[in-house]
Amino acid sequence: MGFEGKVVVITGAGQGLGAGFAKDFAGQGAKVYLLGRTLSKVEKVAAEIRSQGGDACAMGCDVGDYTQVHDCFQRILEQAGQVDVLVNNAAYYHSSTVMDTSLEDWDRHINSNLNGTFYCIKSVLPGMIQRRYGKIINMSSSGAKLFFPGFGAYAASKGGIVSLTQILSEEVKNYGINVNAIYLGMTNTEQTRARIDTDPAITVKLDEMLQVDEVSKVVCFLASDAAAPIMGAAIDVFGKKA
């Protein structure tokens, strides 16, 4: 599943899953663009990749801001000429009942998760259609189908990602573009470990959770030409526990 000569863009790449994806793609020969809200974090990951012989570039970008996304992808296209793979991984989560969810927190979930995914897709789609090639992987969540209390805003945003994925796949499948989503279970990342003592929604032990490298293998497969027949799928990647 080599990615030599491919340009891969990963959002939310400053730590956790996004950083793991970036390292795996770069290790297989891809030129990787790491996008993240905090530039210093994505720069650190990109520097680590380059120190190991990979090709990586870091860019600060809040995917919930269309102007930032548009400007960022313009720079990527000017530098690299194309985007072959887009992994929409950036996400925001805050636990709250529907009753207690503020309008501001609702908007932040929708902007960061659903709008951000849409903005990035809009930025790469014209080039993919023109070249008749592209792989788009959108990260949803097990919370969008298993209905955990306190996940209302998050689940709504992540459920919307699945619907967007499946409709977009039908619209572009004849252009050689694969669009798929992952229903992601609880994963052992820095963010999860920081929440584990304070968030009652986390009842799974770290060794029972998905590990970053396990998820990355699925993402890299979906981005490979071996997965060309898979279109519009929303795949359960739950590990031992959701």
Give the SSE layout:
Blueprint lengths: L6 E5 L4 H12 L3 E6 L2 H13 L3 E6 L5 H15 L4 E4 L14 H29 L2 E6 L3 H4 L5 H21 L4 E8 L5 H6 L16 H12 L10 E4 L5
Parallel strand pairs: 1-2, 1-4, 2-3, 4-5, 5-6, 6-7
Briefly characterize the structure.
The protein has 242 residues and is an alpha/beta fold. It has helices at residues 16-27, 39-51, 66-80, 103-131, 143-146, 152-172, 190-195, 212-223; strands spanning 7-11, 31-36, 55-60, 85-88, 134-139, 177-184, 234-237.
CATH C-level: Alpha Beta
**In terms of per-residue confidence, which ranges show pLDDT below 50 for 5 or more consecutive residues?**
none
Instruction: Give the rounded overall mean pLDDT.
Output: 94
CATH topology: the name is Rossmann fold
Structural class given helices, strands, pairing?
Answer: alpha/beta
Largest sheet descriptor = 7 strands, parallel
Across the major sheet, the strand order is 3-2-1-4-5-6-7
The total of helices stands at: 8
